[in-house]
Amino acid sequence: MIRALDSKLAQPQAPRNIRPLCIMLEDPDDPRLPDSAGSIKSNASSTDVSPRQRYDLVLSHLVLHHIPDMSAFLTTMFGCLKSGGRLAVTDFEDFGPEARKFHPESKMEGVERHGIPRAEIEHILKKIGYVDVQVEVGWTMRKEIEAWPGEWGSKRPTKEERGGKALEEQDFPFLIMLGTKP
User: Fold this and answer.
1) CATH code for position 155
2) Beta-bridge partners for 131
3) pLDDT (tens digit, 9 = 90+) per residue, 73-111?
4) Is 71 inside any structural domain?
5) Residue 63 belongs to a domain
6) Cα 43 from Cα 46, distance rounded (Å)
């Protein structure tokens, strides 16, 4: 996805204030992040003490269900925000056992949970310190699913492979999770 973003940013009409970084970010003061002036030091070391840049908005889409520790992840995002900065996270909702069907069996590696429990995520956001927390269904996505775990094998069958037969489908509600750093 970083390569795809890089190619889009290479276009003449692309905004010039976007800098993609591919970092396993666990610390909002990671020296690989831009400093408060927006500069990235290619030789940043762990002893670099210059304050890191803080942001007005941190976005995440369809990531949270892959994260082992949602609280640690959202705490890091909190640390990356300026005072008054906003968090906007979207992911599908854990609406019960049927939510597991979001991923085919062959794509379960790296899936930590089958959707986001609405009450739990609201509690986590407030506990971290986000204010003006809102967690609500923003839209529903209709998605083709396996009729039983493993039906597709390693890949979804093509229409030709299915003899023109339609695949089973299911609706998945998506949560929009918002919060502000005071």
Assistant:
1) 3.40.50.150
2) 180
3) 999 999 999 999 999 999 999 999 999 999 999 999 999
4) yes
5) yes
6) 10
Largest CA distance in the chain: 62
CA 91, 93, 97, 98 torsion-angle sign: negative
Q: Which of 49, 47, 72, 64 is nearest to 127 (CA)?
A: 72
Question: What angle do the packed helices 118-128 and 70-80 form, to 10 degrees?
Answer: 40
pTM: 0.84
Residue 41 gets the label, from left (phi > 0), alpha (psi -120 to 50) or beta, of: beta
Positions of the chain with pLDDT lower than 50, given as ranges: 48
Structure tokens at 130: 């986000």
pLDDT in tens, 2-16: 788 889 999 999 988
How far from chain centre, in Å, is Cα 135? 15
Q: CB neighbours of 63 closer than 8 A, spacing ≥ 6?
A: 89, 91
Token code pair at residue 123: 């509690």
